[in-house]
Design brief:
- With 141 residues, the protein is an alpha+beta fold.
- It has four helices and five strands.
- Strands 1, 2, 3, 4 and 5 form a five-stranded antiparallel sheet that branches.
- The chain is globular.
- The N terminus is likely disordered.
């Protein structure tokens, strides 16, 4: 019996034409010892559509309520680095040669920094960019 390998475009596709996607929130943890965090963004990855994107929203007064000494410029710099990795190319630095999936895995690896990824979740979508903005509204703003 010959096995037929699905084309790359159909990997993860459902009968309804929706594609599997993964996402994680980005959160700011101003003081790890206090265990407080605030969602500030979302990363969405869809292998079948070779999509990797992120969107962020900083509620600066709310963040400063958690920690008045928080380095907001540092948070902005970290979020800009995430956006650069999502875009790829020169903005991705050493990760520029990595495919979108490799960059997504790197971005969602657990770390102990002020900006941290949340757990990875999955869903189905026909529009990963639209899903990114839906999740930003639902989970962040």
């Amino acid at each position: 019996m010959n096995s037929v390998r699905p084309s790359r475009a159909n990997v993860g596709a459902t009968a309804s034409g929706l594609q599997v996607f993964e996402y994680a929130t980005l959160r700011v943890v101003p003081r790890v010892e206090r265990g407080e965090s605030m969602n500030v963004g979302v990363i969405v990855y869809c292998r079948a559509l070779e999509y990797l994107g992120c969107a962020t929203h900083l509620d600066e007064p709310r963040l400063l309520a958690l920690d008045p000494s928080l380095d907001l410029d540092g948070v902005r710099t970290a979020l800009a680095a995430v956006a650069g990795l999502c875009r790829g190319g020169e903005d991705a630095g050493q990760a520029a040669a990595e495919p979108p999936g490799g960059r997504f895995r790197w971005l969602t690896a657990p770390r102990s920094t002020i900006v941290q990824p949340g757990p990875v979740h999955a869903g189905l979508t026909g529009d990963p960019a639209g899903e990114l903005h839906r999740l930003l509204t639902l989970l962040v703003t």
